[in-house]
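tool_call: predict_structure(chain=1)
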Amino acid sequence: MRRGAWKSWALGCASLFVTGSAAAAPTPGGVNFQTPATEVARDVMAFHNEVLIIITVITVFVTLLLAWVVIRYNKRANPVPKKFSHNTLVEIVWTVVPVLILVWIAKGSFPLLYEQDVMPKVPEDQVVDIKVYGHQWYWRYQYGQGDEITEIESRIVPKDQLKAGQIDQLSVDNPIVAPLNKHVRLSITAQDVIHAWAMPPFAIKVDAVPGRLNQLWFKAEQPGIYFGQCSEICGANHAYMPIELRILPEDQYNQWLTRLKMSPAEATAYLDQVQPRGAAQVAAAH
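tool_result:
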């Protein structure tokens, strides 16, 4: 089977476990990835399902083989045990077949690791740079360079201050915002302890390490509200350090950025105007 066809089949199998996008947030007890929002995320999900199919077949085969051995060669069915030390053919098969399976898995995983890590070469005017700083226990985002730097702090919205459409333990006061169909490059570090910036619908995650600069990239294919969390235990309030990412069309993103230079409050007000919170606008569901 061609790899493209295999990938499509794997994604088709995955779709049996994916519900609609109206759920507005990761589903408690969900059994699959969140709906992929980038090409990389789709490739990760397809590869995951390929490997899941492989290990399921192996598990079923080994279980049946074990059951056959127990039934066929127990003391009652086989009172006189066979006296041989090995079987050359069996040993060759159980060495070669696992090697071939691992080669197949490696053939898919190595290019995918490169795809996740290395941003394609595109003109710099097609790249948006955002600096990300992890703090105990909030995120700080920095837009622009030199004298044009604008910063916002992104903190969890307390339960008693949630507004209509906001989600407990996921919504923040000032979300990170990025444009649609642009290559977004995040430069990530931390100010105190190790954190991790993770966005499941984009299949991206990287540690934020004090004194070091890590990078990741994404290119969102549809506007919406996406949720992630700090994924490295970083202290008492680690569980209350969510990430809310808003993807806007480029013209709206530019308008938001202009308002951000005036004040974060004005930028957030504009954001809620052009992209109201609510299930219909949210693309981060299972």
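agent: The longest strand covers residues 127-135. Proceeding to next step.
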